Amino acid sequence: MVRKSVTLARMRKLLTATACVLGLLLARASAQSSAAAGETLFKVHKEYNVLIPMRDGIRLAAHIYRPEAKGRFPVIVSRTPYGKDSKSIFSMAEFFAQHGYAYVTQDVRGRYDSEGEFTVLTHEAQDGYDTIEWLARQPWSSGSVGTFGGSYLSWDQWLAAEQQPPHLKAMVVQSTPPDIFQVAWRGAFFINGLFWCLLLDGRTNQDLSVYDEHLTDHLPVSTLDEAARRHLDKTFRAWVQHDSLDDFWKPQSYEDNLARVNVPVLHLDGWYDMRDVSVTLKNYNRLLHEAGSAAARQGQRVVIGSWEHGGYAARKIGDIDFGPEAVIDGKRLLLKWYDCFLQEKNCDETAKIPPVRIFVLGENKWRDEQEWPPKRAQITPFYFHSQGHANTSAGDGSLSHIAPGNEPKDEYTYDPRDPTTMVLQSASGVDAMTADQRKAELRPDMLVFTSAAAETPVEVSGHIQVKLWAASSAPDTDWVVRLVDVHPDGYAQRLLDEIVRARYRELPPYTQSYQQFSLLTPGKIYQYSIDLGDIANVFLKGHRIRVEIASSFFPVYSRNLNTGRDNLTTTETQTAHQTIYHDAEHPSQILLPVIPRF
Questions:
Q1: Number of helical (H) and strand (E) elements in the chain, helices listed first
Q2: Which residue among 13, 447, 527, 543 has the highest number of C-beta atoms inside a 10 angstrom radius?
Q3: How far is CA 367 from CA 183, 284, 325, 356, 537, in A?
């Protein structure tokens, strides 16, 4: 089997980023926590492992940092399963305590110093509510409480906010994933989630370095935890067994009750945060119209940078440097937000924050928008073309505005024993979502369609869709589509990708159940509508637009074994002969929201 391009080291890096996400806005670190001109800073009073009682008697441990002064102060709370002790968290806490806030970081139930048993997200709604209300009652508290955090910590916030604690006044959410059911199940099963489940298998974070990167080669997928010498009955194994949004998932899910949130929310994310950025934009738009109060609807703002998951301190991802503007002064942005909504101070400055602030890749500049997606975008089809030899980047696949006529089909063979994947390691040896895809594009089981070099810059900003006409010799298979920005020197910079499991082609995106499915008739042509997600990218002069087509996204998502049987509990594989059509009757295309530039 070919060595995988997506490494276990990559997953370790992502999990480390998630665990430290509280401090990742601190691009200027503690050395820059000194006062700006004219500011007076408080000394910081610290209390460690304060036990906060929940309604059922369980006590959750928290570190409390507050101004060493008389009076009552607004509170910012962050609740984490990854441990409340780190240099970045301390830096964040000191900054806000120096600026007149009580900053509280708490271990969630059953993790680190907190009592009780940890079950993913199950207790976060009530525990979050109880923590907020306890903090509001303290003699040093003004009664105004805000929340902060990213990834799991944003789930924490949503679940608590939906309980409408009376003293919650504002939120800052970063890198919000979809409902955890949608993380685990996208038709194809998210087997890379195994490492997250392993990390949390205990009271403290587990050491992932003991696992070999080929662990996910193991079949059947359903026993991967046993292959790791663990028994993940309440996480990974349960994910495998529950393929619909049933009573197992519902206590962990926030999306159904999102409209109950009745406070202002600052949403932060990055274009290279896999699919989380599209969820962030969806949540923003929904709360803009459906939030539980007028103040909440008017108090929604979203900032989307160039960043990976939680990587707000980075101007560079792998080999791609997005320039100095890519790094934001996160502390000051948050301080402005909390000053307004927790203290009713300087709200005229907060009002100046645009509804949508995006970092446009390629040109590497920030731009303000009034809505997302931009209404002025013109949905423009780029059609697939070839003379039947689009295999590899050296083939004859092309993209153009011209609708296809009588063109030959393209074919490739997908073998689950040697699955294609995307490259994630940069030339400098750093794992990065921007990594050069040219190595993957050399495989004959990938089709590559590339436009002519842009004569003038082409901006694509909005939601991307692909319409694909395809057939397979197998009763079930996968289709993976990737959008790439090809630089003049050939560097193939990944932008977006998505996977569709053919048996679920008739189900809507983000479906709540995968129990219903329809196998393929081998050789029959089907149309697939594939949502790639959201992006804002300028294909600069000399750059080319590229679409890759393959049939696996391994080891991020489980392989389709092509047999039509259960892909998670069986081990038998079957080779699939795949056919992509792009003719007048089957005009395969990518629909790009092109921004007019005058």
A1: 12, 25
A2: 447
A3: 30, 17, 11, 8, 12
Q: Which of 170, 205, 214, 455 is nearest to 338 (CA)?
A: 170
Same domain, 355 and 410: no
User: Is residue 333 assigned to a domain?
Assistant: yes
pLDDT tier at 36 (50, 70, 90 boundaries)? Answer: low
Indicate the pLDDT class of residue 38, thresholds 50, 70 and 90.
low
The CATH number of residue 537's host domain is: 2.60.120.260
**pTM value surpassing 0.85:** yes
User: Does residue 309 carry a catalytic annotation?
Assistant: yes
Residue 487 φ/ψ, nearest 5 degrees: -75, 160
Residue 249 lies in a domain: no
The C-alpha atoms of residue 98 and residue 73 are separated, in whole angstroms, by 11
Residue of 99, 167, 267, 309 marked active site: 309
DSSP letter assigned to residue 89: H
194 pLDDT band, cuts 50/70/90, is: very high
pLDDT per position as a tens digit, 157-170:
999 999 999 999 99
The answer on pLDDT for 34 being more than 50 is no
To the query of whether residue 151 is one of the catalytic residues in this protein, the response is: yes
User: Alpha carbon of 485 to those of 85, 152, 470: distances in Å?
Assistant: 40, 31, 24
| Residue 342 and residue 384 in one domain | no
Which residue is catalytic, options 151, 222, 306, 552? 151
What is the overall mean pLDDT for the chain?
91
- Containing domain of residue 59, as a range? 14-179+254-369
Q: 343 and 384: one domain?
A: no
Q: Residue 454 pairs with which residues in a beta bridge? A: none
C-alpha 311: how far from chain center: 12
Options 107, 113, 273, 485, the catalytic residue: 273
Same domain, yes or no: 356 and 388 = no
| pLDDT for the residue 94 | 96
- Among 154, 106, 160, which residue's Cα sits nearest to residue 133? 160
- Kindly state whether residues 175 and 188 are assigned to the same domain: no
Q: Are residues 94 and 110 in the same domain?
A: yes
- Report the Cα–Cα distance between both ends of the chain, in Å, rounded: 51
The 3-class SS string of 288-341 reads HHHCCCHHHHHCEEEEEEEEECCCCCCCEECCEECCHHHCCCHHHHHHHHHHHH
Tell me the average pLDDT across 448-461: 98
291 in Cβ contact with 300 (< 8 Å): yes
| Active-site residue flag, 273 | yes
Residue range 226-275, pLDDT digits in tens: 999 999 999 999 999 999 889 999 999 999 999 999 999 999 999 999 77
CA distance 432 to 455: 29
Q: Are residues 167 and 220 in the same domain?
A: no
The three-state (H, E, C) secondary structure of 365-413, written as one string:
EEEEECCCCCCCCEEEEEEEECCCCCECCCCCCEEECCCCCCCCCEEEE
How far apart (Å, rounded) are the C-alpha atoms in residues 451 and 590? 12
How large is the average pLDDT for residues 576-595?
A: 98
Of 322, 338, 369, which closes a domain?
Answer: 369
